[in-house]
C-alpha cells in the first residue's frame, strides 16, 4: 500500500492538514485555521463531491464514544494539562482492519497496555507518528524501537483475545 500525498491546509495553505471540517470536509491544520474557516458559513458537499475516488471506508475515530470518553476521563485525572487531540476521519482500505468496539474496550481496559503507555518516550513516538505527513514511513521506523514493537504485540494479542471471545 502506497502512502497518499498529504493534503495542504486550505485555510493557511502552508502546513499539511491533519483534520477536515465536519460540515464541508475542507482540510485544515489547526484550531486557529478551523476558527478562521468557521467565520464564514459552510455546507456539506453534495453526494457526488463527497465520495472518495477509491472504494475506501471512512471511519470516525470517535465512533466508539463510550470507550474514548472513559479513557479520556481516566487520562485527564492523571494529566489534566495534556491536550487531547481532535478526532479526525480515517480512511480504511479494507473493512477487516476496523477494530470493533469490544476490541477497543479490551485495549482501553488492559492494565498491561496502560502501563506501557506511561513511557514518555513511547508517548512522543506515537504522537510523532500521528502528526507525521508520512505516517506509514514513521510507523515502519517505529517498529525498530523495542518498546513500540512490544506495545504493538500486546495490542494485537489483546485484540485477538477479545475477538476469540465473540
Automatic annotation (TrEMBL):
Gene3D superfamilies recorded: 3.30.60.190
One GO MF term: zinc ion binding
InterPro entries: BCD1, Znf_HIT
Bilayer-crossing regions: none
Domain HIT-type: 9-42
Keyword Zinc: yes
Keywords: Metal-binding, Zinc, Zinc-finger
PROSITE patterns: ZF_HIT
Tree of life domain: Eukaryota
Entry protein name: HIT-type domain-containing protein
Source organism of this protein record: Brassica campestris
Amino acid at each position: 500500500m502506497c502512502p497518499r500525498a498529504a493534503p495542504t491546509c486550505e485555510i493557511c495553505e502552508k502546513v499539511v492538514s491533519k483534520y477536515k471540517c465536519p460540515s464541508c470536509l475542507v482540510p485544515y491544520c489547526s484550531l486557529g485555521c478551523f476558527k478562521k474557516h468557521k467565520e464564514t458559513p459552510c455546507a456539506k458537499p453534495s453526494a457526488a463531491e463527497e465520495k472518495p475516488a477509491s472504494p475506501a471506508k471512512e471511519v470516525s475515530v470517535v465512533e466508539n464514544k463510550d470507550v474514548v470518553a472513559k479513557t479520556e476521563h481516566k487520562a485527564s485525572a492523571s494529566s489534566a494539562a495534556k491536550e487531547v487531540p481532535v478526532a479526525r476521519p480515517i480512511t480504511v482500505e479494507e473493512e477487516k482492519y476496523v477494530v470493533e468496539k469490544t476490541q477497543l474496550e479490551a485495549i482501553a481496559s488492559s492494565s498491561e497496555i496502560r502501563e506501557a503507555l506511561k513511557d514518555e518516550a513511547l508517548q512522543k513516538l506515537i504522537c510523532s507518528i500521528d502528526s507525521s505527513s508520512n505516517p506509514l514511513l514513521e510507523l515502519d521506523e517505529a517498529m525498530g524501537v523495542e518498546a513500540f514493537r512490544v506495545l504493538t504485540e500486546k495490542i494485537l494479542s489483546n485484540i485477538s483475545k477479545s475477538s476469540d471471545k465473540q
